[in-house]
Amino acid sequence: MGATGHLGGLAMASKPRNGGRLCAAAAVLGEPLPALDDPDLLVHPSADFAAQALVSSTEQYREMYQRSIDDPAGFWSDIGEEFYWEQKWNPDEVCAENLDVTKGPIKIEWFKGGKTNICYNAVDRNVESGNGDKMAMYWEGNEPSDDGKLTYSELLDKVCQLANYLKSVGVGKGDAVVIYLPMLMELPIAMLACARIGAVHSVVFAGFSADALAQRIVDCKPKVVITCNAVKRGSKLIALKEIVDASLVESAKNGVNVDICLTYENQSALNKVDTRWKTGRDVWWQDVVPNFPTKCDVEWVDAEDPLFLLYTSGSTGKPKGVLHTTGGYMVYSATTFKHAFDYKPTDIYWCTADCGWITGHSYVTYGPLLNGATVLVFEGAPNYPDPGRCWDIVDKYGVTIFYTAPTLIRSLMRDGTEYVARYSRKSLRVLGSVGEPINPTAWRWFYDVIGDSRCPISDTWWQTETGGFMITPLPGAWPQKPGSATFPFFGVQPVIVDEKGREMEGECSGYLCIKKSWPGAFRTLYGDKDRYETTYFKPFAGYYFSGDGCSRDKDGYHWLTGRVDDVINVSGHRIGTAEVESALVSHPKCAEAAVVGIDHEVKGQGIYAFVTLVDGVAYSDDLRKSLIMTVRSQIGAFAAPDKIHWAPGLPKTRSGKIMRRILRKIASRQLDELGDTSTLAEPGVVEQLIALTDS
Q1: Which residues does the UniProt record annotate as the domain AMP-dependent synthetase/ligase (predicted)?
Q2: Helix axes 186-196, 152-168, angle to 10 degrees
Q3: Active-site option among 565, 672, 676, 694
Q4: For 590-614, how does the pLDDT look when each residue is reduced to its tens digit (9 = 90+)?
Q5: What is the model's pTM?
């Protein structure tokens, strides 16, 4: 597909047909969707919405997009100029890249030689421009009565105090800091404090187990771990500090000792006196950080200096440390936020994601604050104390932009409209979806029920590795189709290739790749350049391979079809099948395991595990529960299998490769689509597995 290949259908699709009247399969913002479930349904922006949008027409998008492809250096330089740089980049070297493994090592560099600091741009710059009294963050705790707020000036003071403390204990440029916190305001504060002094933060989702946390600590060898004593999620108390304690014991066994565990007292969950403590290592945040000055010098770093590590599941058992650098990521996260949500300075923005995932980095912390936005940080559960909590929060703070995951939408759908209808939601003007493809039924419910048929939905496709949105609607620029991510963001050239890497034109389905680099792209996998190149650039030479399947329809709209490798997307969390298999096999009664993903009504994908037991061990419900608990303790509750299917044996080729295609069909009950099983070493295994389907 050429640079304009995806635009062919866009111009046609953007205009009402029939002499200005909309065709049957069309609607305009402000109207309920027609009842028919038509994949070609077009939902047009209203004239009022388009008129005030940053990108208000397909023509404006076409012009901007074409320039971003024809002149990426000029396009991104102009945007880069909007930020503060202590030293400008070389205008002749805005971008240097090689995405073709056959032509040498993979290289992606943007704004190299430029010196900047993302914390300065996200916080100081807003204060210095006269917005110090503007609200930077609202915080809503687990209980509806728990809340807090920080202006940009107050945020700057707190960031500087923590940055000064970190410097006092020897943390400097290039040093790693692991952050294992719930969604307190201290989580983005800790990220910004690290960035301010040039340290590399690695946020670990506070749902990961001690073993998973230890694995990440061993890999990046942090000088400090930042956590809190406990958190409440709904009515459940989670002792985070005890998880950290166990992880530090485990990492020490592997030769990595962490000298300081800075612990925030989360008083709403647990008091100091009830917290386990190791004198000499553990330090209370509230005892030391507030004593430090509220001014801290900025460490100016190169655009290509590392900003953060974020571990993501791969198709082998070891998580991948995705490394993002500073300059390009800063420019890209800010620009994607601004345009995909049609951001206005008066907006109150709420993204429900945790900062333990890339969405919380790019679209809770950096992207919004770089635009001077007011961000809502939510620590609780969306269905606590009842399923109306989200809409209570929307009304309480006047939220205008609401960005969440299809999993949450489907979960709330099951509770019906009663809890939604109790609340006004009139402040909402843009909705967003992230983490996995949103099915059209959930899209329509989100649009009609939550948004009252008046809010466009930015259904964003992107990845931990991409740093920011890649394919996404721009709310005022073109009509949407329920379930489609629509068209590429500026500077992004998506192509759909076949098994041999040949680009396909027009209406097609295949593997989604990206041609040419973009500023937000990750630069490597920490300590594993070979895996970086093998996973992402060797499958199709000359392209970044996303690992996702994609269809393009006759109008040029993109439809993501999910993972094509052995990674399962559960509630927007990417979980490697090998990681789950490894945990299962660690159980003393498990001889072998194979894990596949299945469709799940709420979570998008569920985890379905085929388990072969050690000889002589009997099947039992207690053993099934024990296996699930093993996965929960080693990885986290979010990775727990939804189904354990007993397997006397697994379908393997004569070379020993497990035929996951057959397992997926059995798990999905598509028994008439098993295909040829004659190549299996033991074809009879398939019948045994089918017989045990409901055991």
Answers
A1: 130-517
A2: 60
A3: 565
A4: 988 899 999 998 888 999 999 999 8
A5: 0.86
